[in-house]
Amino acid sequence: SHSWWLQGCPFPWTEAEGHSLGQQYCPGLVHVPRYSWGDHRSLQGAVNHLLRRDYGTFVLAAGGAEAHGKPVSLQEGLWLYLCDLAGSRVDERRAGSSRTHDGQLLFLGVPLVLVGVAATLFGHPALGRCIAPARTILLALVLYSVVFHSLANLPISVPLFLAVHARFWQMPNSSVFFLLAIGFEVLCRRFATREYVRWSLALAGVYLQVVHNYSQQDQSANRAIEQLSRTALETLPANAIVLCSGDLQFNPSLYLTVCEGVR
Question: What's the predicted TM-score (pTM) here?
Fold first, then answer.
């Protein structure tokens, strides 16, 4: 009778006679990942999973990365994030790529975000009863940005490490886009009161992003990683034991073996 709840619960850690509720009542629904940070069937395992203790809590490298250079500082990390948000991709420019796109906000989104921040701080009437949630999101953005860039310990002078660092900007970006929407709504209420004008402007913004960036970011025909991993697996001798170091080597090989039955 509780199978629906157990299936949707990510941490069924309540123990009964040495077994979790999921194991006791619905063993077929308990998902035990083959590879994960912490075994979330127990409370301690769930905490380890959330804090990434197996890899390093709130840090990007467990050790040894300092040999490649000085880790990024808080000020430098925040500046790089703001540049990436408003301008062209920092990691692509530093790598010398000519296929860089013009930032997450396409330059035009910056004033909308600033308006959204101001409207959130001063409680603009457009927010209605959503002032508290909006301020919570703004606070989360500030806390994440400061805490992450204070603890991030990769030397971003290495292009690969910069790309790893940059992918953790997706979380604050979601808050930034929320603030952009608030700014858009505030300005539309003042200058574009007709509904079709709002929809036209919103769709135009999405269209510009797609048209301007899709050709540079389209990786649908890129099979380089698949070919590399498949070739490495298929040329191994029988009963070989593979030792992988890094996501780029481990994850594609794991996918090919588990999902596509290679070797």
Answer: 0.71
pLDDT of residue 90: 57
Nearest to 123 by CA among 172, 177, 186, 180: 186
Give percent of the chain above pLDDT 70: 73
